[in-house]
Design a protein that fits this description.
rod-shaped, about 20% strand, binds phenylalanine, about 350 residues, 7-stranded mixed β-sheet, 2 domains, alpha+beta
Length: about 350
């Protein structure tokens, strides 16, 4: 009688190890066939060969080999189970029917939106959009606009002066305190008649509060022609506010002073929230102050070599922050640059 020429214990270890290392169900099935296959399965062969063993050997090895069969079957079954669990987890990851993750996209800043809207309205009224430098000389920011050197009006605008690098023809350098210098640049290089708007940043060295920022925006407007009058001005801004707020808006003109216009005006619109009844936005007055304006001063025309007897024009400057605050009911101008996403995401 033969002896079994195989070490059952070693076979057991390597079989269990092989099952452990399997990564997918197909490979596991081939392993099952390799060990337990009817034809030539390794364990099947061992069990088959038992009958040829001496009785003593049969008694010793028989039960071990039989229980090994059970053990391998169980290990295969458990492995199959765990592969199923894994693959179902895998499916969740690539489940194409799951709703997608929302990708955060940026959008235009509320001020950009408002400025764009304002530009579009003026463009539709045949105004051209022009721009000018943020770093200006004293000449463009003040002198050419009829603000003389020692005039108190220069103090009205608290100026950021820049350190001088060399001499400029226009005097000291500064950050423009308003967009009115755009008027001068444009008139120096163009002949009337024309109508333009000039959006841009302006800077003032002053304390900030809910309605003042050191850096803010303005939109300058200038219309020059042979017979431009305040009536044209009134029509243009009435039309502008009607298009902006999508309803007829009452306006009110009050006399005011700016050195570069004569007469100078302050423009109020009837509060668009309460229609003049009084509310938190208009501080119960029923009116909102929205722009400075006036007829171009003859001295300004002289500065750009236009004949003041021949040409007439109106100019105004309006603050998009102020317009945005009115339109969207924003209580504090500082919110625009706060970088607070809770604010920005509302637009
Ligand atoms: N530049 C003026 C300001 O900043 C506004 C203004 C513009 C007034 C044009 C009259 C005409 O306050």
């Amino acid at each position: 009688m033969k002896k079994l020429n195989i070490d059952i214990e070693r076979f057991r270890k390597s079989a269990i190890q092989a099952i452990k290392e399997i990564k997918d169900a197909t490979a596991l099935e081939s392993l099952r066939i390799r060990f337990l296959g009817r034809q030539g399965g390794e364990l099947t062969e061992i069990l088959r060969s038992l009958k040829n063993l001496a009785l003593e050997e049969k008694r010793r090895i028989g039960p071990v080999a039989n229980s090994l069969r059970g053990e391998i079957e169980k290990a295969l079954e458990q492995k199959l189970e765990s592969l199923k669990v894994q693959s179902s987890k895998l499916k969740v990851v690539v489940d194409l029917t799951m709703p997608g993750k929302r990708i955060e996209t940026g959008h235009l800043h509320p001020l950009t939106l408002v400025e764009k809207e304002i530009r579009e309205i003026f463009k539709a009224m045949n105004f051209s959009v022009v721009e000018g430098p943020e770093v200006e000389t004293e000449y463009y920011n003040f002198d050419a606009l009829n603000v003389p050197k020692d005039h108190p009006a220069r103090e009205m605008h608290d100026t950021f002066w820049l350190k001088q690098f060399g001499k400029t023809r226009g005097g000291r350098l500064l950050l423009r305190t308003h967009t009115s210098p755009i008027q001068i640049h444009y008139m120096e290089t163009h002949q009337p008649p024309f109508q333009i708007v000039g959006p841009g940043r302006a800077f003032r060295y002053e304390a900030t509060d809910a309605s003042h920022e050191t850096n803010f925006h303005q939109i300058e407007a200038l219309m020059v022609g042979k017979d431009v009058t305040l009536a044209n001005f009134k029509f243009v801004i009435q039309e502008f506010f009607k298009r902006l707020f999508k309803k007829k808006v009452q306006i009110r003109l009050r006399p005011s002073y700016f050195p570069f216009v004569e007469p100078g005006l302050e423009v109020d619109i009837q509060c668009v929230k309460c229609d003049g009844k009084g509310c938190n936005i208009c501080k119960e007055s029923g009116w909102l102050e929205v722009m400075g304006a006036g007829m171009v001063h003859p001295k300004v025309f002289e500065a750009v070599r236009y004949n003041p007897k021949e040409w007439r024009g109106f100019a105004f400057g309006l603050g998009p922050e102020r317009i945005a605050m009115i339109k969207y009911n924003i209580p504090d101008i500082r919110l625009f640059y706060s970088g607070d996403l809770r604010f920005i995401k509302q637009f």
